[in-house]
Amino acid sequence: MIRSCLKASRTFISHCPVALSHDAVSQPVLVRRGLSMGLWPFSASPRDFSLPNASWNAEMRQVYDHYTALCEVKTEDSEETGPWHKLPSYNRSLKHAAGGVYLSKLIQSKARLFTRNKKEYGAAFEYVIFMNKQEKRCVCAFQAGHLLEGPPGHVHGGAIATMIDTVTGTLAGYLVGPVMTANLNINYRSPIPLGGVVLIHSALDRLEGKKIFVNCRVTSTDESKLHTEATALFISVNMGHLFGM
Ligand SMILES: CCCCCCCC/C=C\CCCCCCCC(=O)SCCNC(=O)CCNC(=O)[C@H](O)C(C)(C)COP(=O)(O)OP(=O)(O)OC[C@H]1O[C@@H](n2cnc3c(N)ncnc32)[C@H](O)[C@@H]1OP(=O)(O)O
């Protein structure tokens, strides 16, 4: 399993050339028009937020175990593992984002990925994404913590949108490299209980030049109940797009 997860992270990282943890050890630095980044920007031990922790309930563990087992399946004709890979998940995507008029040193040093900005286990977004590159789809197990309340006892629609953006964006990024969300359409069909676990299924619809069309469904873990449906459009971008280059 460790080997397949390492392989998955390498594949993902190769699509996200500057993805890393904020704890990353400084390495030789490339400085180009205000954007500086480590040439090998990965920490030896970044915290992977998508591993099981004490806040995960039994349902979350069950889904994790189910898909982890699929990651370990060997194909018939080779020693390679099957098409499923668990993606690691860190709390920072860029270590140094020195460009940008509004980006102070303080903001740079404190910036964190929105869904991974709580150190407290179980308080907000607990999730793990499993990718199936062959089928161009992924599944995310999402356990919504107490800080994500919208309607009493249920998950905030913005938190659901955040997760849909994250999962569809991760799929698009995994398949084609850096992307930004251009359009997100969401239909909320039934509320998600706070503390509950849902599956977020996402699949590629089609590629049209720079445009990546992705669909998404949020369901109960047994898939009998539909909570949310969405479509998303991502546009491939150069990293320079984020720094006015
Ligand atoms: C760079 C990423 C780094 C990755 C690092 C990896 C770490 C991984 C870690 C963790 C994973 C977490 C994953 C989270 C994912 C979340 C992602 C977000 O939330 S992104 C924030 C919200 N989005 C914005 O702020 C965009 C703002 N908009 C823009 O920047 C531009 O408008 C942009 C890039 C979307 C398009 O700009 P143009 O100049 O590149 O492209 P044009 O020429 O305008 O459009 C290209 C084609 O797309 C159509 N298009 C553009 N926008 C459209 C729209 N809204 N609806 C329909 N079509 C649209 C156009 O009509 C055109 O189509 P025709 O080629 O002519 O057929």
TrEMBL record:
The keyword Cytoplasm applies. Its EC number is 3.1.2.2. Residues 153-224 form the Thioesterase domain. GO terms for cellular component: mitochondrial inner membrane; mitochondrial intermembrane space; ruffle membrane. Keywords: Apoptosis, Cell membrane, Cell projection, Cytoplasm, Fatty acid metabolism, Hydrolase, Lipid metabolism, Membrane, Mitochondrion, Mitochondrion inner membrane, Transit peptide. It catalyses: hexadecanoyl-CoA + H2O = hexadecanoate + CoA + H(+); tetradecanoyl-CoA + H2O = tetradecanoate + CoA + H(+); decanoyl-CoA + H2O = decanoate + CoA + H(+); (5Z,8Z,11Z,14Z)-eicosatetraenoyl-CoA + H2O = (5Z,8Z,11Z,14Z)-eicosatetraenoate + CoA + H(+). Its main location: membrane. GO terms for molecular function: hydrolase activity. This is Acyl-coenzyme A thioesterase THEM4. It comes from Hemibagrus wyckioides.
